[in-house]
Write a structure and sequence with these properties.
heterodimer; A: alpha/beta; Dna Topoisomerase Vi A Subunit, Chain: A, domain 2; Nucleotidyltransferase, domain 5; five-stranded mixed β-sheet; 15 helices; globular; B: alpha+beta; five-stranded antiparallel β-sheet; 9 helices; 20 strands
Chain lengths: 458, 487
């Protein structure tokens, strides 16, 4: 009997469920470019011989857009507004500082190209797109080896004629074109703010190529197990081809996991998703929001009502002002990983959580047990011990004591934030770190998201 | 007690005040525990508003006062401050006296343009009892309702803010009861903050630095800054009286503290512990300590940016590592006043000065954290009879240098129907200077180009009606560069 497979895949961690007569669930860690190898090995171990359907739940576009600028995507925007979005991005720090900085745009400033076109506030075309100009822009984009173009024209939600003409033109030249008027699948009531609409389009253009490329690599693992099957891979509920064609917006597909999690597990109340790569709080009860919170500003994207707490698994612990060690707003990348994995150099909240966990708690995360290195753990405690002598006037704290207290403080900060959002009543917790955090976060009930996952693929 | 616990208190305060935008917390003995500023002025004025309100109105638990009077701890009249008392020690038949004072400030659209006195800038509300025993004060509410200058959305927003404050009150009382936040703990937090700040000051060289800036040809600001014995002394003696520019002493204090802390590049709690290391002298009658009824909008907006530049320059002259070239000063505040509908205020970001290790930020707000650029071009074009021509970075406006100054902002829009317009922006004779060989940034300008092509640079203050076809261009200043350009 063919298997049904579900795979939630982040930057370095994935959850796999496999359903046949039996039900298998596994979490695994994988180096960024090599999910296929780990996946193949796992499918072999489970003796999966044929596959009927694969549902993928990747959240990459959001992570990718923050991991560096694309060199194969560009933005065509109404002339005169090339820098508008960059100017409106929030600063990285709230406090006053001589080092005020913004996050880097997903696409370099020099690849924001102005187009002489204009639609007015009433939706009338004052200046149609000019093919001569488009030809010039196309040759410039070809010179830069651009593959994906975000087209962001003012008032395109009211009248998208200019955007559609630009799309038609650039597609004949072989570019993939993403229009701001088509974000959210024609959900026009969400499009009153051009900034969120444009940002959504830009993140899509930036992430499209790497997203498809990674999905296709995963697809190739399963294709050998499902010869001849045409609609094998779905991203959430959407066939992959519909996303590749642009019929389903990429970002909508990328939120499939959160949609499913919220609708199946948060019907009665809020849930806290305690993942290895992010913590997310879902308001539940069917509440929705019109935008996705990103470091660049809100992205036009209808999603379940959610927010990302300030403390994330990889929130760094750095030199502080009052206290020698404080929680920074900066997040480490999983490329180096937490210190307990033996490679990271700066302590993170994840490290503090890991010290609270029993040695076997990470055992099911293949091959974490290989990575959870005693040397890394020792190094972490040593580093904290070095700071510990500056904490108190009286006694010197041991490194482990400091780790415990920082862990408790981190949980307290999380609890306060949850309470600020009014989500502390009937809150449940799920995710790989749920067991470690349920009690410190106020004795939360744990629910198993794998059971919901099983229903999604059944 | 230990520093981790004091850090915990700071994180707790940040979390408790998360839902508010501009706020402070102090004890009823006026020990400042926390400030969450959105402007430099907030640092000095929010505590003063709390102090004045409690001194004269003797807040009890749950009482809320209102004021926007800049001479009683306000900043500009479009930003009213609510001050709430929080107390837990109940007394017989009476609500508890306030042990803590929470101030929260809202931001409404300012009235910008010519003003001879503070009352020309809008409705001024002295500290008044607004909310008590769970209800608004009908006398105050009726008085406000009847005033023609009251913003249309005043009451809904005040009500929403009061609801937030009352939630915060419940949380604070809960924390006090659980002893998560006791008097002993916050005293240690203040002590640890002071010690940490003292340690940071000890890393700086002692010395004296001076700076002087010409504001308008008739007014100037003079500053002598000194770091000595773990303290910072800022003396504005020699500053002239204001003629076009006026600030209150509390706003000046806010600018001084905020600017200095920004140079340390850390998230430093603003509380009495840290403030105890500052000594600031702003002579009465000088433009940095103006008295009623001087108008204050320009001083408390562009003026504080100018003050921050002067302070940075003086501190740079003590320690070059503190170097932060001047940032663009003027936000080019310009208001459209349609016949129907609310006015709209443009207020541009500026180019930030470069430092010894990095270029300045393009089109940023060095000293504001409002969501002023949260507006939508499409929405504005729908609501007002204008069409934007350009919104972006003002090219080549930052000063050159080894590290270039940040570029200012440029916004141009066409008028589609005649509309009244007023403006008020600072045009000091000197541009935002570079440091250490870096070049100055460009000046701010507001230009009106009429339909026949004639261009006029607007003076620093005025009002006029613009016609259909006119194009208004706002160009904010660029920041100064740092270091000589090797090329």
């Amino acid at each position: 009997m063919p298997w049904s497979i579900g795979l939630r895949v982040g930057e370095h961690f994935a959850d796999l469920v496999a359903l046949n007569k039996e039900f298998y669930k596994r979490r695994f860690y994988y180096p960024q470019s090599n999910v296929e190898a780990t996946l193949s090995a796992l499918l072999q171990e489970l003796q999966v011989s044929t596959v009927a359907k694969v549902r993928l739940y990747p959240n990459w576009p959001f992570e990718q857009s923050q991991s560096g600028q694309s060199d194969s995507a560009a933005v065509l925007i109404t002339a005169g507004f090339e820098n508008w979005l960059e100017m409106t991005m929030p600063l990285k720090t709230w406090h006053f500082t001589s080092e005020a900085r913004r996050p880097a745009m997903p696409i370099d400033r020099d690849l924001f190209l102005g187009v002489s076109e204009r639609t007015n506030a009433q939706g009338q075309i004052e200046k149609p797109v000019d093919h001569t100009e488009l030809e010039f822009l196309a040759s410039k984009l070809q010179l830069h080896q651009i593959k994906d173009i975000a087209v962001c024209f003012l008032h395109s939600a009211r009248n998208n004629e200019n955007e559609m003409r630009a799309k038609e033109f650039f597609e004949t030249k072989g570019f993939r074109v993403h229009l701001s008027c088509l974000q959210n699948g024609h959900d026009f009531h969400l499009m009153t703010d051009e900034k969120s609409r444009f940002l959504s389009t830009i993140v899509t253009a930036r992430s499209f190529e790497p997203f498809l490329s990674r999905i296709k690599k995963i697809q190739s693992v399963f294709e050998t197990l499902a010869p001849g099957e045409t609609n094998l891979v779905f991203v959430g509920d959407h066939p992959l081809q519909e996303i590749a064609d642009g019929r389903v917006p990429l970002l909508k597909a990328a939120t499939s996991y959160y949609e499913k999690l919220s609708s199946s597990m948060a019907q009665d109340g809020p849930i806290f998703y305690a993942g290895y790569e992010n913590f997310i709080l879902f308001a539940g009860r069917g509440e929705r929001q019109k935008s996705w919170p990103s470091p660049f500003g809100p992205l036009a994207l209808a999603t379940p009502s959610l927010f990302f707490p300030r403390i994330q698994p990889l929130s760094l612990l750095t030199k502080g002002f009052i206290s020698p060690v404080e929680f920074s707003n900066d997040i480490a990348s999983h490329d180096l990983g937490p210190m307990v994995f033996g490679r990271g150099l700066v302590p993170t909240f994840f490290d503090l959580v890991a010290l609270q966990m029993k040695p076997d708690d990470l055992q099911d995360v293949i091959p974490i047990t290989d990575r959870r290195n005693e040397r890394g753990r020792h190094h972490l405690v040593e580093q904290l011990a070095a700071h510990a002598r500056n904490f108190t006037d009286d006694e010197r704290l041991a490194g482990e004591t400091l780790a415990d207290r920082l862990f408790v403080l981190g949980c307290e900060i999380l609890q306060d934030e949850i309470r600020n959002h009014g989500l502390n009543k009937n809150l449940k917790i799920c995710g790989p770190l749920a067991t470690a955090l349920a009690q410190p976060l106020g004795g939360l009930s744990i629910i198993d998201e794998f059971e919901a996952f099983r229903e999604w693929i059944g | 007690m230990d520093r981790l616990n004091s850090y915990r208190i700071y994180e707790k305060l940040k979390s408790l005040f998360g839902p508010l935008h501009r706020a402070c917390l102090m004890t009823s003995e006026f020990e400042l525990l926390y400030v969450k500023p959105e402007s430099l002025a907030d640092i000095g004025t929010l505590p003063l508003a709390s102090e004045v309100s409690h001194k004269y109105l003797h807040l009890r638990d749950g009482d809320i006062t209102i004021t926007n009077d800049p001479y009683s701890g306000g900043t500009v009249v479009c930003s009213p401050t609510l001050v709430m008392g929080v107390g837990t020690r109940t007394t017989k038949n009476k609500s508890a006296p306030a042990e803590l004072l929470v101030a929260s400030r809202l931001t409404f659209v300012a009235k910008v343009g010519p003003a001879n006195t503070i009352d020309d800038e809008g409705l001024r509300i002295p500290p008044s009892p607004y909310f008590s025993n769970g209800m608004p004060n009908p006398t105050i509410v009726d008085a406000l309702k009847s005033h023609p200058l009251l913003p249309a959305d005043f009451f809904p927003r005040i009500e929403a803010e009061i609801a937030q404050l009352l939630k915060l009150r419940a949380r604070l009382k809960d924390e006090l009861r659980k002893e998560n936040f006791s008097r002993t703990q916050w005293r240690h937090y203040l002590r640890d903050s002071e010690q940490a700040f003292h340690s940071r000051l000890d890393e700086l060289p002692e010395g004296v630095g001076t700076s002087e800036i010409d504001v308008s040809g008739k007014e100037s600001i003079r500053l002598k800054a000194e770091i000595r014995d773990g303290h910072i002394f800022l003396d504005f003696t020699g500053t002239t009286a204001g003629q076009t520019l006026f600030m209150t002493d509390s706003a000046t204090i806010g600018a001084a503290v905020g600017t200095f802390l920004s140079l340390l590049k850390s998230d430093i709690p603003i509380n009495m512990g840290v403030l105890s290391r500052f000594e600031i002298k702003a002579p009465k009658g000088s433009l940095v300590n103006s008295s009623f009824p001087r108008p204050l909008y320009l001083g408390h907006t562009d003026g504080l940016n100018l003050l921050a530049n002067i302070i940075s320059l003086a501190l740079y002259r003590i320690d070059r590592k503190l170097g932060w070239a001047m940032s663009g000063v003027s936000h080019c505040s310009l208001q459209l006043i349609p016949n129907d509908g609310p006015p709209w205020l443009f207020s541009l970001p500026t180019g930030l000065g470069a430092t010894s290790s990095a270029p300045g930020l393009d089109s940023g707000f060095a000293w504001r954290r409002f969501s002023l650029l949260a507006y939508s071009i499409e929405d504005l074009e729908r609501r007002y009879q204008i069409e934007f021509v350009h919104c972006g970075i003002r090219a080549h406006s930052g000063g050159g240098g080894r590290f270039a100054g940040g570029q200012g902002a440029a916004e141009s829009f066409k008028i589609l129907q005649p509309v009244k317009m007023s403006w008020n922006y600072l045009r000091p004779p000197n541009r935002a200077e570079g440091l250490d060989g870096g070049k100055s940034g460009q000046d701010a300008e507001i230009v009106v180009q009429s339909a026949n092509g004639q261009k006029t640079i607007l003076p620093s203050v005025g009002e006029q009606t613009v016609q259909k076809g006119d194009i208004i261009t706002l160009l904010s200043g660029g920041g100064g560069g740092f270091g000589a350009n090797s090329e």
